[in-house]
Write a structure and sequence with these properties.
Helix 3 packs across helix 7, helix 10 packs across helix 20 and helix 15 packs across helix 16. The chain is built from 20 helices and eight strands. The protein folds into three domains: about 100 residues, no CATH class; about 160 residues, no CATH class; about 120 residues, Rossmann fold (3-Layer(aba) Sandwich). The chain is an alpha/beta fold. It has a four-stranded parallel beta sheet. The protein has a four-stranded parallel beta sheet with strand order 6-5-7-8. Helix 10 links the parallel strand 1 and strand 2. It binds iron/sulfur cluster (2 copies). The site of one iron/sulfur cluster has 15 residues, from helix 6 and helix 7.
């Protein structure tokens, strides 16, 4: 393949080489360092990053767009950290996924999720009526446990300081998680609200490399947040949702949002430091591993706040090896977890993560991302690791002193 002439007439080649440095396929040295960094590629399965870049370089658009490699790639950018030319694999793969020829291999569940989200504002098609019914149910439970009316979950409060944007799972299978986040907001003493138009922090358009869909999903959130005149949008623990909303709004919408954006972990830590939220340092008297979600850590630079919050409620943080910028993907990134046909595949893509967890000998792990949380839980079960998986904000809530 190295002797094949570079085809710089292809559209794909032109898109990829519009930047001066970084994600330019033309810069690839074919050195293969990326292969050694990919936690899934083992010569037999998984994405072959060097091959994908080389195919892009040679203008083999059709071949690349129809290769299962582009949907095996977890767009985790682990290979990018070692690439001498700084080639951003997530960008290359997302552009390839967005090519018209790639539509045939777009996972059905992701395609359906994007359609539903664009039509209803929620990937599961959760309606405003569903929202009100669910919040009413939760508020009845909260009222049974707490006499303070301020503990109830508020809805559509214009001018509230904070607006919480949940993961759709929190309004379905993980209702208790939403209730826990409501306790954190209540403990902070701040004005906050939820909104029937804000039920989905995710953005599957990003997975599909669909620029227009990604932009529309972001706009659904930006416009509704600005209408409510919110000071800070607080995002649920969601890696890719955080990456898109924290980093890509100016590029997608053409301007900065008229509100700040924080994760629930940052919100909680900030209020602990200000003395508003009080946590019991003995709440979790055991050592715990911390997993860096790729979108939060390597791709957004958030390494310390989750560790700091965990250290306030757990006995000790045990680092996985490698970690931080070099952390290994859980195996469910890049849309793999959202592809309903991927369960078997994810146990292979997550094998390196499972080995990492097993090697510490520790029985608890925390991740500030509900997708990583689910994938790590499934890995622990599949590999019989006897490890309990939590999210960071959930552990903080369990340590609340009220
Ligand atoms: S590490 Fe970078 S330069 Fe080397 S083969 Fe991979 S993409 Fe090309
Ligand atoms: S899965 Fe991650 S490390 Fe492997 S090729 Fe894709 S971006 Fe690179």
């Amino acid at each position: 393949m190295n002797n094949t002439a570079i085809n710089n007439n292809s559209n794909f080649f032109t898109i990829l080489n519009r930047h001066e440095r970084g994600d330019n396929a033309i810069d690839c040295l074919t050195c293969g360092i990326c292969l050694s960094r990919c936690s899934w590629y083992d010569g037999e399965g998984g994405p072959n990053p060097r091959k994908m870049v080389r195919m892009a370089q040679l203008g083999l658009d059709n071949l690349l767009a129809q290769s299962t490699m582009i949907w095996d790639c977890m767009i985790c950018n682990h290979c990018t950290t070692a690439c001498p030319m700084g080639i951003k694999m997530a960008d290359i793969v997302r552009i390839a996924r967005g090519l018209p020829q790639a539509e045939a291999i777009l996972p059905e569940s992701i395609s359906q999720g994007i359609k539903t989200r664009l039509e209803t504002g929620d990937v599961n098609g959760f309606t405003e009526d569903d929202f009100h019914e669910t919040i009413e149910f939760l508020n009845e439970e909260i009222a049974d446990e707490n006499d303070d009316p301020g503990a109830l979950i508020p809805s559509s409060i214009k001018g509230a300081k904070y607006l919480y944007l949940p993961n759709p799972r929190e309004l379905g299978a993980s209702l208790l998680h939403l209730k826990a986040m409501a306790r954190l907001f209540h403990a902070s003493g701040e004005t906050w609200t939820m909104s029937p138009r804000h039920t989905d922090v995710t953005n599957w358009g990003y997975f599909a490399g669909d620029h227009e869909a990604t932009k529309k999903m972001v706009l659904q959130i930006v416009e509704a947040t600005e209408e409510l005149e919110i000071e800070t949008l607080v995002l649920s623990e969601c890696g890719h949702g955080f990456f898109v909303l924290r980093n890509l709004i100016p590029e997608l919408v053409g301007r900065n949002p008229r509100f700040n954006i924080k994760s629930i972990v940052e919100f909680t830590l900030e209020h602990v430091k200000a003395g508003k939220i009080k946590l019991d340092p003995d709440a979790h008297p055991y050592p715990i591993m911390y997993h860096d979600p790729c979108n939060l850590g390597r791709k957004s630079g958030i390494f310390d706040p989750p560790r700091e919050l965990l250290s306030l409620v757990c006995k000790e943080i045990v680092e996985l090896n490698p970690n931080r910028e070099n952390g290994i993907c859980c195996g469910g990134g890049g849309g793999l977890l959202q592809d309903s046909a991927s369960t078997k595949k994810r146990m292979i893509s997550g094998r390196a993560k499972a080995d990492q967890m097993k090697n510490t000998g520790i029985k608890h792990i925390a991740a500030p991302c509900l997708s990583c949380h689910r994938q790590l839980g499934e890995l622990a079960k599949y590999y019989k690791l006897d490890i309990k998986v939590d999210t960071v904000a959930a552990l903080a809530e369990e340590a609340l002193i009220e």
